[in-house]
Design brief:
The complex is a heterodimer of chains A (205) and B (174). Chain A is an all-alpha fold. Chain A has 13 helices and no strands. Chain B has a domain of 46 residues. Chain B has a two-stranded antiparallel ribbon. In chain B, 6% of the residues are buried. Classes of the chains: A mainly alpha (205), B mainly alpha (174). At the A-B interface, helix 11 and helix 13 of A face helix 4 of B.
Chain lengths: 205, 174
């Protein structure tokens, strides 16, 4: 009863016309407050979407980031590089928010030290990797395709080996990027039982 | 124990010429202290360049060479030569978790990858037992198989393959 009456009181306050403030103040003030809130929200969101934010935790700095630094997605002839969110956060706003909400679990993991040592990280690596493989598989390797477009791929510039594989598996839609290109930016966990994308077992499905 | 003494004795013998050179060069240096500054010839039997001594000069590193990644098989110089890797192997992981090479070259995966299967000799363990898959001692591919670059040999090589030595060169490409 008390909760109900409290809620009712709140509603009455909310529904009552303003006594002291003008309509102009309320609308303009509401608008400005909205801009500030929305801008602040997006700024904060973008701040968490930067590599510097990711590697501000030692878990990410010492494990996946160290491994990334060796790979072609970090250092290469043309100097184009992928940072953490390029591959791990969707670029579309709604998908991004959905991923960010999921990522609240990572805050939990940080607070309770789920992977705060190298050993814990290695033990959990297969599970973490499987999450990312599942995500990229289900969105048809969207984060890969943000940069690598199958349409713009000139297979005459590829090695015959790579060209054949892309013709057989990628262009036919049989497989998506992550089916074959696992572990391109980080080391792989124990791959027992995981077949490569071109193996007969995976291809038949 | 015996072998240890033998090795020690051999080491001593090998050290004697170096010791004597050290002594004589010391004597020479004492006689002519300027000898190191302008000599172009030999000091105590060891040739020393007069200027731009390599140790004290920064020599720019040679440009790195391009990997050969044309997927073309190379002729083997002798029958037992491990075949060369004609493709890029950057970031290929070969450890306890996974052997990236085997994801194509393993028997089970060659149908999908169309890569040559690793030879059955790799299935034999050190006791000559043929196993069902690659033996532990053959697991680390890059111990024997290596990619090539377009670098020219620093030291000229006059190697001739078996067929050239026997005088009927039709067998090999050379």
């Amino acid at each position: 009863m008390t909760i109900r009456s409290a809620l009712l009181g709140l509603w009455r306050l909310f529904a009552r016309p303003s006594v002291h403030f003008s309509l102009g103040f309320l609308t303009l003030g509401g608008f400005i407050a909205g801009v500030v809130f929305w801008g602040g929200f997006n700024t904060a969101l973008e701040a968490t979407n930067k590599e510097a934010f990711c590697i501000s935790c030692h878990e990410m700095r010492d494990n996946p980031y160290e491994e990334l630094k060796q790979t072609i997605h970090f250092t290469n002839r043309s100097g184009v590089r992928a940072s953490c969110p390029d591959c791990h956060v969707p670029h579309q706003w709604t998908d991004k928010i959905a991923r960010k909400m999921q990522a609240s679990k990572e805050v939990w993991g940080k607070i309770f030290g789920t992977i705060d040592t190298r050993e814990k990280f290695l033990d959990k690596r297969r599970e973490l990797a499987e999450h990312e493989w599942a995500r990229l598989k289900s969105n048809n390797s969207l984060e890969c395709r943000n940069c690598h477009s199958a349409d713009s791929m000139d297979i005459t510039k590829q090695n015959p080996r790579a060209a054949k594989m892309h013709e057989t598996y990628l262009f036919t839609g049989q497989n998506t990027c992550i089916d074959c290109h696992k572990g391109i930016a980080h080391h792989l966990p124990d791959m027992q039982g995981i077949e490569p994308g071109w193996s007969m077992k995976t291809s038949q499905k | 124990m015996k072998t240890r003494f033998l090795i020690a004795a051999l080491a001593l013998l090998a050290g004697i010429p170096a010791l004597t050179i050290g002594v004589t060069s010391g004597v020479v240096a004492a006689d002519k202290p300027v000898v190191m500054a302008d000599a172009t010839g030999t000091v105590g039997g060891i040739k020393v360049p007069s200027t731009n001594h390599p140790i004290t000069t920064d020599v720019p590193a040679e440009a790195t060479h391009r990997e050969i990644t044309d997927d073309q098989k190379r002729v083997r110089n002798y029958a037992d030569q491990p075949p060369l890797i004609p493709h890029a192997i950057r970031d290929y992981q070969i450890d306890l978790n996974i052997n990236k090479c085997l994801t194509c070259h393993d028997r089970r995966n060659t149908a999908g990858s169309q890569a040559p299967m690793l030879s059955v000799t790799h299935f034999q363990d050190r006791d000559g037992q043929t196993l069902g898959t690659v033996a532990a001692r053959r697991y680390f591919c890059t111990q024997c198989h290596v990619p090539q670059t377009d670098a020219q040999p620093i030291v000229p090589n006059s190697f001739q393959d078996f067929d050239s030595v026997l005088g009927h060169a039709q067998g090999g490409q050379k």
